[in-house]
Amino acid sequence: MTNLTNLFSSIEIEISELNTNLTKMVNAKHPILYSAAEHLLKKKGKKIRPSIIFFIAKITTINKAINSNHARLAEITEIIHTASLVHDDVIDDCDKRRGLDTVHNIFSTKIAVLAGDFLFAQSSWYLANLNNLDVVKIISKVIIDFAEGEVRQGLISFDPTITIEDYIEKSFYKTATLIACSCKATAILSKCSQETQNDLYLYGKHIGLAFQIIDDILDITSNTNTLGKPAGSDLKNGNLTAPIIFALEENKELYQFINNEFYSEKDISKAINIIKNTKGILKAKDLAEEHIQLAIQIIKNKFACENTKLLILTSNYILNRVN
């Protein structure tokens, strides 16, 4: 498995600056709002999204350099992602995120919703200050997609008739749209051709879909300490993901648990064991690998440099998180 530290060593300065700037960017006048926003950024994530932006910036600029607008886009992307997480936690009534108590668990649901709204507003302000209308348009679409995705997900909770096609569409709105649009926005800031912009959008879309599929597998296969949140959260909240959709084809007993809306923790444990004893997880990983390979082909065909290799290694890292 690729070592994350070695993989990101060429952009460690940029990642460090991003972490510093994020705290400054979420500054709020009201102490509770600031505390809530700061708490969201306290536990450092893997920063996969900004890292992808940095690598794409390096392969799309003549001097292979990350400029200030690329760096600001990476920061905006991370703030939007963080804002979506706090709203997700409220909707799913999740107590933990990255091993820490969620904002609504520490403060209140009202404060958590306001903190998420505040972060979306801050990201929009910094986005406007990039002074690039095309970038504003494409990143603004992400926030619209998030809202539509949450509504769609709510409408199909505990629905055993969901298809893989439905799931992929939901996953696009939930995760892939941010990565896809960020990749395209990076190409726009690098003044790439429309063709290259579209290629990188597709790259990001496939990476984003694979990322979500792997996340959904981990919800079944990992424990709370590894995930930083309770295992089986998707089942509890009625989010039927790739592993369970594939498992349903093999073991009809799962329908009973879904119809009972995974009534107890014991039901969730039993359902997880059933899923593990089917080919559901393997088929879900195969689906993620398919999207990873599609993404890699786009990069291989379009670019050829050292940073391309790092981008491909990042893609493979996303897939191998389940190993």
The tally of strands reads 2
Biggest sheet character: 2 strands, antiparallel
Specify the CATH class: Mainly Alpha
Span from first to last CA?
8 Å
The spatial strand order of the largest sheet comes to 1-2
Low confidence ranges? none
Q: Write the CATH homologous superfamily.
A: Farnesyl Diphosphate Synthase
CATH names the topology as Farnesyl Diphosphate Synthase
SSE class: mainly alpha
User: What is the helix/strand order?
Assistant: HHHHHEEHHHHHHHHHHHH
Write down the domain tally.
Answer: 1
Taken from the alpha-carbon principal axes, the silhouette is globular
Overall pLDDT confidence: 86
- Count of alpha/pi helices: 17
Annotated CATH architecture: Orthogonal Bundle
Helix content: over 70%
Instruction: Round the Cα radius of gyration to an integer and report it.
Output: 19 Å
**DSSP strand (E) fraction?**
under 5%
Textual characterization of the structure:
- With 323 residues, the protein is an all-alpha fold.
- It has one domain (4-322): Orthogonal Bundle (Farnesyl Diphosphate Synthase), CATH 1.10.600.
- The chain has 17 helices and two strands.
- The protein has helices at 4-7, 12-25, 31-42, 48-60, 68-92, 103-106, 109-128, 133-155, 164-189, 194-221, 224-227, 233-236, 242-250, 254-259, 265-276, 280-302, 306-319, and strands spanning 96-97, 100-101.
- Strands 1-2 form a two-stranded antiparallel sheet.
- The longest helix is centred in the middle third of the chain and has 28 residues, at 194-221.
- The chain is globular and about 60 Å long.
